[in-house]
Every structure is written in structure tokens, then in C-alpha cells.
Amino acid sequence: MTDKATEIAPKIDVVAQTGKMINKMSSMDFNTILYEWIIPYGTKILLAIAIFVIGRFLARIISTLLGKAALTSTRNEMLQSFITSISYFLLLLIVVIASLSQVGINTSSLVALIGAAGLAIGLSLQNSLQNFAAGVMLLIFEPFRKGDLIETSGMSGVVEKMGLLVLELRTGDNKTVLLPNGKVFSDKIVNYSNNPTRRIDFTFDIAYGSNLKNAKEVIQRILENNDYVLKDPAPVVAVGTLGSDSVQLIARPWVQTTNYWVAYWDILEKIQLEFDNLSISTTEDDQTDLHLKSGTLDPKGESQI
């Protein structure tokens, strides 16, 4: 009986205290409620709102300035976007904590709670954190910039934007591809735009019955007279391989990186048209003729019967 009385006693005290508070508030006049409750707590709430609104505005301005400073020092638009985003998030977190502190909430407990929640979220989002860390490393090592044509993870395209977790590419047929930063950082990255000049590699298989000397002269003349081909280094035309049914000619002109595909298509078309005019035969890929005899296929044309 004593134990039950002990358990009920605290409940009775709470109910009694609540009743006393209600009675006290009901007995208060308007002026008392105004000066003891509305004004003090209303002021704190208004100050908290003001801190949040002004703080968020300042956080946006500061993060933007930091991003512009990064752009000025590095000329990297992706780094600018990254620093702007992460600095705004951190500053906004500080503003929220300051606003809650003004209301009277114990922010030390809140910070501990945020830390514990961050640890739990981090454990559950390991892949996302890996992508985030990879994004930071890509920004530090800077293997590419916005507008560069790159090839990575089996995809090629122009770099549009690098976010906190993914890299955005625009392909040649104007499709948008999102690649995880972790996959990009761990894979091979080929940057086609990093250097001002590139070499075009042509290969022509000339049939043995055609005039090899004329074929070389045609290619050399077209390369020397082409406006896209650089004079230094000079283009190279040489015999690459003596195949079973053709002679392989290689041509190695250098062009400006921005003119690569225009030069490639222009040179290839002119060489083929000139070959046609001079009756210079080019061969297709190796092929095997199949002969049908007595219902049996034999690559050598011999009957298997």
C-alpha cells in the first residue's frame, strides 16, 4: 500500500502544480500577462526570426563572395560552385543555432544531437560520402574544367557542372549524363581539351594493284594545303604495315583542338575524292570468301566430301 502511495504522490504533485499555474494565469490581469509573458517571449521570438532572416541573407552574400574569390584565384567555375554551396550550408547551420539560442533552447544539446545525427547519417550514406570526398579530390587535382571534352567511366561529353555528389556531362547528341564522383575519380579520365593541339590519326589500306607513290603524294598534298593542318609539327605520311592484301598508309597531321572534328571530316572527304579520281583502290577489312560445293561450306573453297 505504501509503494502505491509513493508512486501516486508525484503524479498528484504534477497535477497540483499544473492547476496552480492555470489558476495563477487565470487570476492575472491583461497587463500582467502582457509584461510578464507576451513582451519578453514575443521579443525573443521576434529577435530569433530577425537573426534567421538577416543571417540567411548574410550567409548567401558571404558564400557568394567566397565563391567569386575562389573563381578569381583558380579560374575554376566548378570549384566556385562547390565552395558557394558548402559555405552557405555551414553558415546557415550557424544561423539556425543562433536563432534557437535566442529563443532559449539549449544549443549545446542541439549541437550534440546534430553531431550524433550526422554520424548516423554518415554511416547510412557511405557511398554518398565517398562521392563527396571524391568531388573534393577532383576539385583539388583539377583533371578537367567546365567546358572540357572528357571521357570517363565509359562515357564521353562536355563537362557542364560538378555537384557535391555527381558530375554532369553533355554528350555530343545533347543528352545529359550524371556520373557519381566516386566512379569518375576511381576510373581513367581522358581530357581531350586540356592541350591546345591534337594529332589526327588516319589509316588507309591501299590495294597492292594501286600506285603507292601516287597515294602518298595525294595524302601529303592535301595535308599541306589544308587550312586546318598545322605547319609545325609537320604532318607525317608513311607506310605503316604491309598486310596480306594491302599496304597500310598512315597519316598524322596536327590541328588545333577546337578544329579536330572539322579537320577530320574535311581531310577524309578530300582524300577519298582524290583517290576516286586517280582510281586508287582501298580495301575493306579482312574478309573470308565462302564457296558452296555439294551443300558444304568451306572457307578455302575445297569440298569436304
From TrEMBL:
Signal peptide: none
Membrane-spanning intervals of the chain: 38-59, 79-101, 107-125
Molecular function per GO: mechanosensitive monoatomic ion channel activity
Record-linked InterPro entries: LSM_dom_sf (IPR010920), MS_channel_1st (IPR049142), MS_channel_C (IPR049278), MscS_archaea/bacteria_type (IPR045275), MscS_beta-dom_sf (IPR023408), MscS_channel_2nd (IPR006685), MscS_channel_C_sf (IPR011066), MscS_channel_TM-2 (IPR011014)
Subcellular localization: Cell inner membrane; Cell membrane
Swiss-Prot/TrEMBL keywords: Cell inner membrane, Cell membrane, Ion channel, Ion transport, Membrane, Transmembrane, Transmembrane helix, Transport
Superkingdom of this protein's organism: Bacteria
Pfam families named in the record: MS_channel_1st, MS_channel_2nd, MS_channel_3rd
A GO term from the CC aspect: plasma membrane
Mode of membrane association: Multi-pass membrane protein
Subunit structure: Homoheptamer.
Functional note: Mechanosensitive channel that participates in the regulation of osmotic pressure changes within the cell, opening in response to stretch forces in the membrane lipid bilayer, without the need for other proteins. Contributes to normal resistance to hypoosmotic shock. Forms an ion channel of 1.0 nanosiemens conductance with a slight preference for anions.
Family: Belongs to the MscS (TC 1.A.23) family.
Family matches, as PANTHER family: SMALL-CONDUCTANCE MECHANOSENSITIVE CHANNEL
Protein name as catalogued: Small-conductance mechanosensitive channel
